[in-house]
């Protein structure tokens, strides 16, 4: 578990986020998932629910570096970036839409 300082004393769980079975990692300030066998650069990510925005809406950040997932452009095929998250000083904290991710369970 990790504590994200921007969210006070909320306890959070860390996860390995995967795409096509490959763990997601950050490199050169971008998020990747390597589909090559033997590459294990997976990072544990903190998934923080933002219930005031929506039921399945999350902020994704690295609990060690505090860098998080950011969509730099709102276009299909845009590479996800990994950088400093902007947090608005409010209660609950405000996060820009390009830092919010919809995660839904697979049936």
From TrEMBL:
Family matches, as Pfam families: Inhibitor_I66
GO MF terms, alphabetically ordered: serine-type endopeptidase inhibitor activity
Protein name in UniProt: Predicted protein
The species this protein was found in: Laccaria bicolor (strain S238N-H82 / ATCC MYA-4686) (Bicoloured deceiver)
